[in-house]
Amino acid sequence: MSKGTFLFGAAIGGAAAYAAAFLFAPKSGEEYQRELKDKAEMMKESSSDYLSIAKERGGDFKAIATDAAIELKTDIQLVSKQLAEQIKMDSQILKSDLKDVKDGVPGSKENLKANLMDAATEVKYTAASLKEQVSQTTSEAKDISLAVIDEAKMEIDETKAENSSVTNF
């Protein structure tokens, strides 16, 4: 082997060793600090995104609860008013029936009994109507809440996907 070939091979080997050492050498402290700082900033942004989603969805749930409470209050007020009017009418009819019973009017006891049954039926119907309205309002609020939860999960998944590089050091 000639001296020139050996030196040429040594130079090529040295250059390859230098390149490998440069490529595989650990990063400097400054590089690690800069990389950690960048990753910390990305994590801060990611947590800010999650906080934003949580605040927005919290506002959505508050609005849903407020709307449901207002609707329930309105339903209860309406039914209460109807019930009060119904009781007022029924009490006048029953008062008249009681007077007839007291005066000994024929058939007045049967009439009083029938009117009492009608009044009880009307109260049961009104209560069932209110129960149905409350159930429907509650169901609607639940459905809307579940939709908001699903939407929030999708937003969180999207945020996770966008920020997946944060955890990939």
From TrEMBL:
Matches recorded under Pfam families: YtxH
Membrane-traversing stretches: none
UniProt-listed InterPro entries: Desiccation-related_membrane, YtxH
Signal peptide: 1-19
Keywords assigned by UniProt, alphabetized: Signal
PANTHER family cross-referenced by the UniProt entry: GENERAL STRESS PROTEIN, SLL0268 PROTEIN
Protein name: Gas vesicle protein
Biological source species: Carnobacterium alterfunditum
Lineage, highest ranks first: Bacteria, Bacillati, Bacillota, Bacilli, Lactobacillales
